[in-house]
Amino acid sequence: RCCEWLRCCGGGEPRPRTVWLGHPEKRDQRYPRNVINNQKYNFFTFLPGVLFNQFKYFFNLYFLLLACSQFVPEMRLGALYTYWVPLGFVLAVTVIREAVEEIRCYVRDKE
User: Residue ranges of the P-type ATPase N-terminal domain (predicted)?
Assistant: First the structure.
């Protein structure tokens, strides 16, 4: 047994299980729900997770740092939109694609 205090591995001797059909009030034990969840993110971890997955690649992080460096007047090479618009477009497309994929997984899991 991996953890007695959680009872996740069937702590103790196996007992026969009685299933009461149509009488949920007679059930004396709680069992975990039998559900499948294929989602990668939840509501709170969606945006940080997507941004982390994008900026863990070298070139995406490089272009973010290059765009941030344009706020320093001595390092400015051109207009700010020439750095931020392409980066924002790539991030927007990625976020939309991940959102559509998550919604599809959510709908499929509900079925």
Answer: 23-84
